[in-house]
Amino acid sequence: MNIIDRYKDQIAGVISCYDRIIIQGSLPGWEYAQGMTSFLNFQKIRIFDYPKFAQDLREDIRKNAEDIARQHGIQIEFIRKIKKMPKETRIQSILKERGRHPGLVHIFSAMETCTSYKPWYDQKTGKTFLRYDSGKCLHYYFYFIDTVFGLCLSIGMKSVPILGK
């Protein structure tokens, strides 16, 4: 027997809602090696120039995250061991200090495993393309309070892995 059934005579109503919303984003076409290869070819970027292309994107993402943090007067907190860091507990302690008004609450960053690409030359076909590889990427966790949805987390911004140099 659950608590609602047990005390149904004393309960006037039940309100249910989300306790959080996680927003993630992706770039369609860049999520798989063939799609990224096609993009680079369309943009006339050589496959073996992918590391430079990715490095520039990575720097843009890092700079944007730092700009957002600076605009809101917060520091990006780097997490060394993501699985051992109680992010939710840390966010709750920040909320106690800052209050629950709308806006950016905090930004975490952490190096995590990610799917990546590396340039490849196929000697049999004479073609160059990107192949899947695994690597480590710097992920950003943006916690913010929305006026409608409350506390939200965006994990969609991560750096582009650099491999194949």
Name its key features.
alpha/beta, five-stranded mixed beta sheet
Would you mind describing this structure in some detail?
With about 160 residues, the protein is an alpha/beta fold. It is about 30% helix and about 30% strand. Strand 4 (about 125-145) and strand 5 (about 150-155) form a beta hairpin.
In one word, what is the shape? elongated
CA(first)-CA(last) distance? 61 Å
The number of E-state strands comes to: 5
Strand order of the largest sheet: 1-5-4-3-2
* Order of H and E elements: HEHHEHEEE
Q: In terms of per-residue confidence, which ranges show pLDDT below 50 for 5 or more consecutive residues? A: 159-165
**SS field, number of helical segments:** 4
| Average predicted confidence as pLDDT | 85
Per DSSP, what share of the residues sits in E-state strands of 2 or more residues?
25-35%
Q: Tell me about the largest β-sheet.
A: 5 strands, mixed
Radius of gyration using CA atoms only: 22 Å
**Helix-strand category:** alpha/beta
User: Helical percent range?
Assistant: 25-40%
